[in-house]
Design brief:
Strand content: 15-25%
Largest sheet: 7 strands, mixed
Oligomer: single chain
CATH architecture of the largest domain: Orthogonal Bundle
Number of domains: 5
Number of helices: 23
CATH class of the largest domain: Mainly Alpha
Radius of gyration: 42 Å
Helix content: 40-55%
Distance between the termini: 54 Å
């Protein structure tokens, strides 16, 4: 739906003149008029590319606003694998590495019971006095009456006392008869607490962990997890008697049994059971200082670590070992495997440094100095140099979220699964004004397909959609790089075995391939290779621009507004990152092509003006001989000429002769002109005399 220019300007917080200039430079005709209506296609193009344009143009005070707006408008839910890794990274120790993770069906049951329970009720005056008397010793009815000042020989006073004792007997606090009353064990307990109890019956449920035997508040834990009911299930760890029910009920159903508050479960019977599985993720971490493995349980639904289940699983060594064995593929070199090889010196140094930092962090926690602890963690993050597969996923996410510069991804292979998961991050980055350059390899043998067609198609769509996205294929290579250029803290890069566009930590795998990446400072050697890659990109986009300009054909074709727009839309914006960086010949050719394009555009404009004027002139000549010329036809031809006047303000001398001819046209058909008002018509009002 088309929108007014003023509305788009307000929405993006970008000046009207800036938007008009941007659209006109990219083939869209746009007057600097608040009421100018912008078509939907142009609006989408504007939203996708205005941030990059502002950043490149250094338009102060506007780029930050529009970038923030663009990111706000384009949000997406990261893949579960990335959310999981990011969450776990916040919980792992400095001396821990993520081994891998897997989805897991955590089994539990819900056992249903019918219980008879007692609950505390405040004593009446009689209840309290009688209980305190019987706490001292057993007494007869007469003795109790004498202490209370009641004459049990009097029928009315006797009935009052018997009624009070009967209530206590019904509550199983008092036993005996008129000759001898005493407090039961329960009665003594409640008498000491100053309350009595009443009984009630109620159904209740207990959640039973069938996976680890976790005895904590299972109800609280499992109610929060996404679960599925199971028709068949193993009935493990179920309570067999009331003594086993009570401790579970005290945690999960305190309204049934909670001795501290005098809620007591007197009896219960099972009435049913249901089996469930909770869908969670299990993550294993290696502690290289202690040479141990720790388990964490991740809930995708709430994006958090389930502390209770993590502790339960971590203490179950057998189950933890079983899961570890699933994550280790002993028969596949791509899987995680243990090795007897000695660690190299770099790895030893890194681990030694992290062990020291962990000790400093632990001391800061003991000293109750959270500020110091936070500084230690932050320093480790900033100085971290080595990343395994899952750690580098977190680092990539950080780059896309926290930087807004040039990201160069040098990846030999392009595979569908990995690429499709990267594209949402790419789009988010492009919309906030950052630039992305992707280079992939040509096949070494000339046969292998280095890029999946579907994945490559999606990347090429980004190339068309965004002015700040670039992709090219280079001579065969095997190395993997991520270059960060133009960041506020300087340039750096990552190098290793992690192929960004063909490897992804995939959901459902029972192993994680441990690719490695190392963060390095930018140096002279990298600068030399960067120039080579930069030149490859520049030559590709220069060739595309050259072909576009050379494809413009004016001679012998009918020039229309679409052709004018297509020529106007041809610009060298994609070449901006490569100008003044490759060599003078490169820049000179760009300039020559721009001059050639401008000349062709002016030629096309002149040809279009000539053609349009000829058409209008022919129409005027036709109307000049029309003895019955209507007002509408004269207005029609005038409107056509007015459009040209607006489009060609510098060519009015060519337009004026036709204007004179239109002015000379005589309208002969006056039948549709407005008739004089009938001022005698009462319904339409009357003239009023001047005062």
């Amino acid at each position: 739906m088309a929108k007014k220019l003023s509305k788009i300007s307000k929405e993006l917080k970008v000046g009207i003149s800036v938007i008009a200039e941007f659209l006109n430079n990219n083939g869209y005709d746009c007057e600097e008029n608040p009421n100018e209506r912008i078509p939907e296609e142009a609006i989408e193009f504007l939203r996708n590319n205005i941030s990059a344009y502002l950043q490149e143009s250094n338009i102060a005070g506007q780029d930050q606003n529009v970038q923030e707006k663009a990111v706000e408008d384009y949000t997406f839910d990261p893949p579960v694998e990335i959310k999981l890794i990011d969450c776990v990274s916040k919980h792992k120790l400095l001396i821990e590495n993520i081994i891998g993770f897997t989805d897991y069906n955590w089994r539990y049951s819900v056992a249903k019971f019918h219980g008879t329970c007692s609950q505390p009720v405040k004593f009446s005056v009689f209840d309290e006095v009688i209980s305190k008397i019987l706490l001292i010793k057993e007494m007869s009815l007469i003795e109790i009456g004498n202490i209370l000042g009641l004459n049990v020989a009097d029928e009315a006073e006797k009935n009052i006392l018997l009624s009070a004792i009967a209530d206590l007997k019904n509550d199983k606090m008092v036993d005996g008869d008129e000759s001898f009353y005493w407090l039961t064990t329960t009665g003594k307990q409640y008498a000491n607490n100053g309350v009595k109890f009443s009984t009630f019956e109620r159904d209740f449920e207990l959640y039973i962990d069938s996976t680890t035997g976790f005895k904590g508040n299972c109800r609280k834990v499992f109610e929060r997890l996404k679960s599925q009911k199971q028709e068949t299930f193993v009935k493990d760890n179920l309570p067999n008697n009331i003594d086993e029910v009570k401790p579970l009920a005290e945690i999960q159903a305190p309204e049934i049994h909670f001795p501290e508050k005098n809620y007591i479960l007197q009896s219960c019977k099972p009435i049913g059971i249901e089996g469930y599985i909770a869908q969670v993720w299990i993550v294993l971490l290696e502690n290289f200082r202690e040479q141990s493995v720790r388990a964490l349980v991740y809930d995708e639904n709430r994006d958090c670590i389930v502390e209770e289940l993590s502790e339960a699983l971590d203490s179950n060594e057998d189950l933890k070992q079983t899961i570890l064995e699933k994550l280790i593929d002993k028969d596949n070199n791509d899987g995680i495997s243990y090795t007897n090889e000695d660690k190299n010196s770099d790895q030893i140094d890194v681990e030694s440094s992290l062990i020291s930092e962990q000790e400093a962090y632990d001391n800061a926690i003991i000293e109750n100095n959270p500020t110091k602890a936070e500084e230690i963690v932050k320093n480790v993050e900033l100085t971290k140099r080595h990343f395994n597969s899952v750690e580098f996923e977190v680092e990539l996410k950080r780059l896309f979220e926290q930087t807004k510069c040039d990201l160069w991804i040098i990846s030999p292979w392009i595979k569908k699964y990995a690429t499709m998961h990267r594209i949402p991050f790419f789009e988010q980055y492009l919309k906030k004004g950052g630039r992305i350059f992707i280079s992939y390899s040509k096949p070494e043998n000339g046969i292998d397909e280095m890029a999946d067609p579907e994945a490559l198609e999606k990347l090429e769509e980004l190339e068309t959609k965004y002015h700040n996205f670039y992709i090219t294929q280079m001579a065969p290579f095997h190395f993997k790089y991520v270059w960060v250029r133009g960041a506020s803290e300087g340039d750096w890069f990552y190098s290793g075995s992690f192929n960004i566009l063909s490897f992804y930590v995939k959901k459902g795998l029972t192993k994680v391939r441990q690719e490695m990446m190392t963060k390095l400072n930018w140096g002279a050697e990298e600068n030399d290779y960067f120039k080579e890659v930069l030149s490859s990109f520049g030559n590709k986009y220069l060739e595309l621009y050259r072909k576009s300009v050379q494809s413009i054909i004016i001679d012998g074709v009918q020039v229309d507004r679409k052709l004018l727009q297509d020529i106007k839309a041809l610009n060298s914006n994609k070449l901006k990152p490569f100008t003044n960086t490759i060599d003078d010949n490169f820049d000179n050719e760009i300039l020559e092509l721009q001059i050639q394009k401008d000349e062709l555009f002016q030629q096309a404009k002149s040809e279009f003006l000539r053609s349009e004027l000829e058409g209008i002139n022919s129409l005027v000549q036709k109307y000049a001989s029309d003895s019955n010329l209507s007002v509408e036809k004269k207005r029609e031809v005038q409107s056509k000429l007015n459009v040209l006047k607006n489009e060609y303000p510098d060519n009015l001398d060519e337009i004026e002769p036709i204007q004179l001819q239109i002015d000379a046209l005589k309208v002969h058909d006056l039948s549709r002109l407005s008739k004089p008002r009938n001022f005698n018509n009462k319904d339409k009002g009357k003239f009023k005399k001047k005062k």
